[in-house]
Amino acid sequence: MCFPVVNRKSCGNIEFRCRSITNNLSPNPSKCEGTMDKQRNEKCSSGNKTIFAWAGGIVVVIGMVWLMVISFISYKTQVMTNQLLDKISTSLAKNPAAQQGVNGNIQDEVKGALKSIADQKLAEERKALYKGWDKANKNTDGRYIYGEPGARFSLINYEDLECPFCKRFKETPKYIVDTATAGAVNWEWRHYPMSFHEPVASKGAAVAECIAEQKGPSAFWAVTDYWFNHTETNGKGFKDADSIPALFEVDQAKFDTCMGSTEVIKRIKQDMEAGSAAGVDGTPTTIVRDNVTGKEVSVVGAQPFSKFVEVIQSMVVDSQRDTSGEASPAQQDK
């Protein structure tokens, strides 16, 4: 076993002792067996204990001093902080304007942050309004269509923005146009506000026309879709209808002028007269027209997608028979 010898003067010049080593380690190895004689060994042990005791005491004292210093610094810091807070409170109490300034700055920052969030949300909402209406157009008659102007077939849709069945039906013609191959079908909107949904139905039609006058065909379809999504229908409309111009970022003065113009009223009446001439007496009514042959078929009500596919396919077959000179089933019955 090895151990250090601290007091070199009393114990010679040996720094480590090992009991297993007995030669040349001591003046009298036979008595000490690898250690110093008993008297010297006791002196070494006593000296070591004294030094370790002193060292331990010094460490304890130093530790206590450091704790006291740290505690004092912490105490002084807390005192200074409290004094500073007291001074600020006293100053604000003596000067209400300063207090209002602090509160005003905080309120301004909060308002600014909330406005930024609201603006971002509104920008996202405006962007979403136009989503899916990239095929919006106008035909040669100046009416708004969705799809290719030169499509083989047209779905001429007589609509009332306050009609609950029109609201239910609104996705069907769009889906037909979007799924038709090679732009074969387009969808044409015509206003047909019913008398028992007035005056809200005509107002909705005019809003769509006046927004589109500034923002173009895509806005027309976006407005009609927005109206359907928010109205309670049956002439009840919705409370935020007057916010539509701001939502679509149009010039309010120009919009107001448009809403009061006879031109918009005339346009709506022309659609209604065309509908009456085609036998329309309810909404939604869709006239499926083959733009090649000129043949038209009326589909009344919110009919499913399959009904329109059936009508269009039948018109294709009839046109092929007419071209080949074959008689259609109806002609054969005659």
Tags for this entry?
disordered N terminus; alpha+beta; 8 strands; 11% strand; Glutaredoxin; 59% helix; 2 domains; two-stranded antiparallel ribbon
What does this structure look like?
Mean pLDDT is 80; it is low at 1-44. The chain has a 6-stranded mixed β-sheet with strand order 3-4-6-5-7-8. Strands 1-2 form a two-stranded antiparallel sheet. The protein is built from 13 helices and 8 strands. Helix content is 59%, strand content 11%. It has 334 residues and is α+β, with helices and mostly antiparallel strands. Belongs to the thioredoxin family. DsbA subfamily. It holds the Pfam family Thioredoxin_4. Residues 142-297 form the Thioredoxin-like fold domain. This is Thioredoxin.
Instruction: Report the mean per-residue pLDDT as an integer.
Output: 80
CATH architecture of the largest domain: 3-Layer(aba) Sandwich
Report the count of strand segments: 8
Write down the CATH topology of the largest domain.
Glutaredoxin
- Write out the CATH superfamily name of the largest domain: Glutaredoxin
Strand content: 5-15%
N- to C-terminal distance: 128 Å
SSE order = EHEHHHEEEHHEHHHHHEEHH
| Tally of discrete structural domains | 2
Assigned CATH class of the largest domain: Alpha Beta
State the strand order across the main sheet: 3-4-6-5-7-8
Which sheet architecture does the biggest sheet show? 6 strands, mixed
Gyration radius (Cα, Å) is 48 Å
Q: How many helices in DSSP terms?
A: 13
Shape: elongated
Q: What is the percent of helical residues?
A: 55-70%
Low-confidence stretches: 1-44
Structural class, by secondary structure, is alpha+beta
